[in-house]
Amino acid sequence: MEPYSVYKLLLTRAHMGRNRRLRHACAAMLYPHYNACYLCPDATIRPMTPCERARYAATHGPIGAYIPTCDAAGRYTPKQCSGSTGYCWCVTTTGQKIQGTDTPPGTAINC
Asked: Which end of the chain is least crowded, N or C, by CB within 10 Å?
């Protein structure tokens, strides 16, 4: 069995929630070996989107860094917020900040 099939099998089993530690271990093995792959909710594997790559990099970077929010298809959600500052702003579909949309913590924003 080629490595891709092994990882897909492990991830499929792990994704079903049978073993949380296995799920995290498999994801950690898959990303470096296949240069950014993602396990979809339907247990298929596809290349990571730019949003998912940015999110993965941020979650493995310095504490307090802004972590992008992606939807189920891997696209940037229109509203992005910083967990450390509480500020929110609107972004384009490519994740570029829309000027003038910064809002302080506790302020409603509609993107």
From this structure: N
Bridge partner list, 42? none
pLDDT of the residue at 25: 42
**What residues have CB less than 8 Å from 29, skipping those under 6 apart?**
7, 10
What stretches in the chain show pLDDT beneath 50?
1-17, 19, 21-26, 28-29, 31-36
Residue 77 token pair: 């959600």
Cα–Cα distance measured from residue 15 to residue 82, given in angstroms and rounded to the nearest whole number: 28
Number of C-beta neighbours around residue 22 at 10 A: 15
Question: Are the beta carbons of 31 and 56 closer than 8 angstroms?
Answer: yes
The CATH number that domain 64-111 falls under is: 4.10.800.10
> Per the confidence metrics, is the pTM higher than 0.90?
no
